[in-house]
Fold each of these.
Amino acid sequence: MGINCSFIKAKYESGMRIESQKNSIFKVIGASSLGTLIEWYDFYIFGSLATIIGAQLFPADAGASALINTLAIFAAGFIVRPFGALVFGRLGDLIGRKYTFLLTLVLMGGSTFLIGLIPSYSSIGYAAPILVLILRLIQGLALGGEYGGAATYVAEHAPANRRGFFTSWIQTTATGGLFLSLGIIVLTKNLIGAEDFAAWGWRIPFLLSILLVGVSIYIRMKMHESPMFTKLKSEGKVSKNPLKESFSNKTNFKMVLLALFGATMGQGVIWYTGQFYAQSFLENTCKVDFNDSRYILLWGIAFATPFFVIFGAWSDKVGRKWIMLTGMLLGIVFYRPIYQVFLDDTDVSRVSQQDIKESTVPVVTRTAVPKSLDSLITRTSAVTLLNGASYTRVETYTRFAEREKTDQRHPDTFKDKKLSAPVFWKFVGLIFFQILLVTMVYGPIAAFLVELFPTKIRYTSMSLPYHVGNGVFGGLVPFIATLIASFSGATPLSGLWYPIGIAALSLVIGTIYLSNKKPDHGESDH
Amino acid sequence: MMNALKKAMGLFWIVLGPACILFLFMQAFEKVGLAEAGVAKTNTALQWGIILFIFIPIAAGLVIFGYYAFKGEYDKLPED
């Protein structure tokens, strides 16, 4: 009887301990993920508002160059991410994970809030874009330090056999941050109206960040240091120079290169093609309406996000390698057919008269052609189709000063395309599929990177390949793909060769050189 | 067999790194030249300068990766 009682008591205590460990890891995940999600939100609102910010930061007559310059400022944030990874990664391996990513959170939140307060070009001239560029660089550096810290922190709290599952929650934050930024922008714009939003309302999403960051700092202050780092510190084994150990030690440096070329490079282009280039392509190439293109992405993200956790957990059972590489392979095979569907289904140039439900009376405008006596006539009309789709049709003619010459008609252009319900949901499905590929490559990668490096140089070593792969290869997808599509003889799909080529290279390297087994740095159980 | 493939592909990565940079330089000269001639105004020296500045160190990394692969450094990984 006595033996039975002590057995039951021991069983009960062990059950309670497991339950308490579970609660503790979910607290760690919640606190880490919230901060990381806010950092991604801060990072992405700038890109989502590029057109409006461009008009505020540059002279009114700057035209398209204002947008290009604003996108360059946006891209600067991506390019400095690897440097942030080095600076804050080193700090994280020296003083600990907790205080380092607390610092990155403060820097990110502060700079985002200040962007919301920057006066426009009309008030302070070129100081406006210069100040925003500086703040954007701080954002990039902070993000470079944040992600590696959060992933390492969660992984070092998680049991070794479930790292994929637990770190996959951190992986949802990048997509979650994008979702939050798109949602808040659309909500604010709908609440205050398009005109006020363009004038001053665009500042609201930036200013709102300080509240979110405040909450996150409060939660993170209560967190404890990672158990592995604490153990290392108590044993006096903390790295004295993590940068030197990571990159001058051949054993570590070769793994940094393998992680970059065999995994993060391909993962980065799949991420940014599915979630950034897709929206840019719908809006700028297919000319889908502003709200429609964002709603399509919002739905796609909402449906696909749970798969980060599903693939993360699955990778604990079958290994990380083949899930990530399958995601890359599917991207290589299906990107061109998917984007061809986007083009075909939004092509209204061949709409016949029988399909048109109504067309408004054209609004005619006449503008002078610069340095000439000729003028440009535009006839703009709104067309609604029987299937519920609608668009704006713009006919353009050049009227010559010489009366004997007849008007020269230019190709019609179509914009603000609102999709019919079946096409809208078909596009949601295609975006969902692309984000599903993102979840395959991105869900397991935090666990994969964490496991590749030993604790004492982990923050530094994993951050660099992650941010070169995502910030440089991935972040430049919209810029390079758009550039390729502008070459003479290029088609609208030509830009896809960049992500397809990079993903193919990564797939080959990953297939040949990566192992599907988990490395053991002597910390498999803690 | 797999190790022989890893080593052989190492040579390919060593060649691929400089080949990519050469290709990028050729593209940059061609496209920037076209932009100056007013044919394709979207390709500026600044844009191509950024691309070269970013990808030259990465291509150097690919060469080092190829060298390590050729020397058999990836024949046995820590997890094997």
Amino acid sequence: MPKRTDIKSILILGAGPIIIGQACEFDYSGAQACKALREEGFRVILVNSNPATIMTDPSMADATYIEPVEWKTVARIIEEERPDALLPTMGGQTALNCALDLAKHGILDKFSVEMIGANADAIDKAEDRERFDKAMKAIGLSTPNSGIAHSMEEASQVADQFGFPCIIRPSFTMGGSGGGIAYNREEFETICRRGLDLSPTNELLIDESLIGWKEFEMEVVRDKKDNCIIVCAIENLDPMGIHTGDSITVAPAQTLTDKEYQIMRNASIKVLREIGVETGGSNVQFAVSPKDGRLIVIEMNPRVSRSSALASKATGFPIARVAAKLAVGYTLDELQNEITGGATPASFEPSIDYVVTKIPRFAFEKFNQADQSLTTQMKSVGEVMAIGRTFQESMQKALRGLEVGVSGFDPKIDTGDEDFAATLYNQLAEAGPDRIWYLADAFRQGMSCEEIFNITKIDPWFLVQIEDLIVEENRLQGSNLTSVDEKTLYRLKRKGFADRRLADILSCTESEVRNLRYGFGMHPVYKRVDTCAAEFSTETAYMYSTYEEECEAEPSNKDKILVLGGGPNRIGQGIEFDYCCVHAALAMREDGYETIMVNCNPETVSTDYDTSDRLFFEPVTLEDVLEIVRLENPKGVIVQFGGQTPLKLARALEAEGVPIIGTTPDAIDRAEDRERFQHMIEKLDLLQPLNATARSADEAVELAKKIGYPLVVRPSYVLGGRAMEIVYKEDELRHYMKTAVQVSDDSPVLLDFFLPNAIEMDVDAVSDGDKVVIGAIMQHIEQAGIHSGDSACSLPPYSLSESVQDEMREICKKMARELGVRGLMNVQLALQDDKIYVIEVNPRASRTIPFVSKCIGVSLAKIAARCMVGQTLEDQGFTKEIIPPYFSVKEAVFPFNKFPGIDPILGPEMKSTGEVMGVGTTFAEAYGKAELGASDEIPSKGSAFVSVRERDKEQIPALAKSLVALGFKLVATKGTAATIEAAGFDVQPVNKVKEGRPHIVDMIKSDKINLIVNTTEGRQAISDSSTIRSSAEQHRVYYTTTMAGGSAVCEALKFAGDIKVRSLQQLHREIT
Amino acid sequence: MNSQTYREAVLALADGTIFRGTAIGADGLSVGEVVFNTALTGYQEILTDPSYARQIVTLTYPHIGNVGVNTEDEESDAIWAAGLVIRDLPLLASNFRSQQSLDEYLKTKGILGIADIDTRKLTRILRQTGAQSGCIMAGDIDVHKASQAAREFSGLKGMDLAKEVTTGVTYPWQEHSWTLASGHQAHKSGEGKYKVVAYDYGVKRNILRMLVDRDCELVVVPAQTSAEEVLAMQPDGVFLSNGPGDPEPCDYAIKAIQEILETQIPVFGICLGHQLLALASGAKTMKMKFGHHGANHPVEDIENNVVMITSQNHGFAVDEGSLPENLIATHRSLFDGSLQGIHRTDKAAFSFQGHPEASPGPHDAASLFDHFIDLMEVNRQGLAE
């Protein structure tokens, strides 16, 4: 049965901004779906509010709408585009929920749009806990004993049945948002209350605890003829109780006999049939009792997922691509397995001859107050995947690929600490982000496998392997490099030990270990990922390293460009950099180079095996990169697109003779080294805020007197705004020096005068080493002091004069020429009192590159890559800045709802996980749309609480006027209330928390406040008011912590009723 | 493995390739045809499958032995494979059903194995050159001797192994398929609805179990049992089992099948049984390059136009071009288009090349057993009329 001819156009829904639980895996799947359907001749219409994605590149779809994935907006797009079909299974929970809303509101019926892939009933059956439970019982499968509750009373009745611990999960939330494990009644009530609040259907599923059971996932694909295949079985190393997104997982499943595996396989297929997923990929999760093998179905996702992206990368079987083709009528046997060059059909089950390990990456360092324990609600922000021939090898490769300052099982515990034994026990018993390293420490402390199993319930099969690695480490400890013979080193390398880890154990340098290894002629070989365990030959160059006999890499003699990727997603380095890497690879391939990608993030488009000619799925570390360079001998290596990960390798790579192209590592250093940067600023006669470097607390205080307050303070040794604060007074500075950083000669603290009333700008530019072209000037909407990644910005600027902008252009061009930039450059500028200050220069790809490229209709990353290989901007016909005749606003999206209780205030440290874009003919419209895309829900009426710091009070009248005009009643703390009254508006005064009850937090908790504008500064004031923000977050009250945010909401509400949608393709035609 | 005494092993191929690794299992020397299997699970079922007689099995998944071994998962009472080649023997077997480690199991049964070699390299060699003769040597190593032994093994072409692995005596079979809750349960004797005689050319237990599940009263007979003896038992159906080696030399079996086909008794063949049914019907068989060995093979059910993922283990195949008019192709491999199933148009006889009994592997093709039951039922009603 070939493809359907009764449908011509298909609407694909994307997943919106990157949030915890929905990361760039949906860009990977969505991009694959777009490609797959367009090559079949369908007209593809795409909706996704996230401009950082590859899928929203205008060349990926026939009509691309960077608009909120929300039913009212999508309804407008449907009205405009009249698609025949809607594919809702590529954009995660966001797309499914939106599709269900469209069906519920009759939009699909009204415009005769058919849902393909999964229909509304199947989605509902899989998602609605009660229906799912019934369905599973009907096919003879067990589900956890569970109860449904729609109120606290019902919840309490269910709890009485099972006792504690029990697991609480709200219906229809993503990444397990709002769920948790309750060990006692108090925890139970807290979690239930939060869950009822978060569930769009006010529904909770309360499960008996299966903590300690083994956890498995099956990735199933089904076609309309009911052919079913299992693409991959994944075993969670962390047993039940930890969200699979936060678990270390291993593929294939390791601890099942064939008999047990086949039970699970049959059950998975039955589940798909019963739920009614007609075509496409689904994920089914199981718990298995380690005692008797009893099998319980936990849940199923009737769509592609994080796990299916992982399964695709783990096996080489592109689930999303195949699912898209199945949705339009093909059957599995009609599709080819691309990796074997079509020698075999897609209707088979991949067999793998290696082990894949995935480890999540967390960002708790950004959220100090957050509860770090891992539970059923996902908290990680990214993941790393590694491939090795054995579990030990893949595990150790994954650990070093994580980039969390370890190169393997580095010790965590300080045995000098007298409480270390208790710490160790707690860390094992209550899993946090670092448990895997504590496991290793437990073995170092002589704990037995059995003891550790009793505490963690991690299958002994995994534990003994970690134990063995520690045995190897212990054996090596105390000896020196010269005593390591070839046989020993080979054994260690085969077990996945990094040179760096061996160096740490042997107290020598990494290069000494490398030299020893080179002396033995010992290098990794590269094996191919081929879906079939070598049964068929493959031309596809999807490779991983291992220490074995035969190398299958077969490098060519062509001119090659190697692109280093960005590793696992983290806050500050995410999909934007992957976008740049992918564009670099595409451009180089278009120009006839053989392209090579190195990366270890399974969620990304860069690690799709057909993005580049050759893919090395490897950790982006010095050792791993050097080996690939040695093998491939590329003409050039691009380090400036993958964020800090490759950039920090630049100098070491250069020292080893690796041909780094584009801006030189020295120029990068000139921009990053504080003193060298200052010299450049002075040389070019530019301005930067007064600043100094302090090596002790007293010195800092002295220097601060000279510079003046407020000050931005940060340690010199970390990037991305880590531990960055604004201090307003000496005691705050002293407090910071004492608590936030450990200052010393080697790690000084940097002090910069903070420009409190400045407007900040981001400028992206591209240079060929001679000519510089401005990509865009973006004006931040939040005032200075908020990290640029967390600030909304407008392109073009909405309130800057032409002359100021011209001056900025000149400043950027001067610096680009001075640094000899060849490629991209990002500059952060501040404007205060008509003076332009240079805050920061980064001669590399920035977070804003994809946003700018979508706005101006030109891929800056591609242009920059071509500059790096020697083409001029003139050659490329890019000689003039493009200023679009419409406004585009980028707004940040935050993960605060995953970390209950933390203060969601914005500051100089970046906290956002993703971004959305809004486009409009006016700045206000664009701003409003961005705001709509970024938030779940903006209240349109009710009470607005306003409490602002002193220097924002002059903006109060305008804000009050807007809010009142929209129909809000105003509530304010005394100071702010006085200002509002003085401006002539009615206001209800309310107590601050410290002024006695009832106070504002009581009002929030009793749902009497609908919208909050709360600005504050200074340590004490921030801490006094933090309960306002955290309770607002908990009670899902819309809030903003900036004045700009306040006016944004008002703008958004003005446009809420009148949505205009325009495709990117239409917009780009307006550019002349 | 570090604390144990390390023993070296070599695997020598007839083409001169030598792999050096770690000995697992017994010491000594063993020769056979070296094949690879890509199944991710079920090593114990594979080792005890009589179809692997005289074959050295390479398992492509690197960790083999993860779940140990147990008595429930045996497909016969012995390890038939001539040797085992793996990348890694894990430090520990972990499964609630495990009774013994794989290493001990091999030793107890006197089977040689080699670990820690680049099994992917070996697989690629076998894929390119075809299945080769090989030799595993463990304990006292003499590479030259191993190579020579490998070269001297003449291969499976023309080799009748069914005769060697078959049962010596006729016996009844009453055990059911395994379930998680109750393991293997026994059928009460004398209560089966269909009397089936199963020819044992190297039968896997799971075939017998699946017939018992379907209410068959089973009698297993040696490979060389004559048709006359079988027909004297007045069976409702005759089953032709899987087995090792080349089907062509099994003239006694071909003759017996031809005689049985002269009656109206339904016949069902699997694997070697399939090839023998084809030969008995006038078709031809041939040796494949490296055969099919795995648990992920897509097979097209031609009539229903659906795909089944099947377990496969064969080095010989029926040549579709040689099918006489009264044999139709019912199944084809979607990997290489080779013939996977046939049905007689004039008789209630059919057969399948893959393994519908799975064990190891997916259960997708289990309905073939139901077809056999249907044929017996129809035949019985026909006789009653």
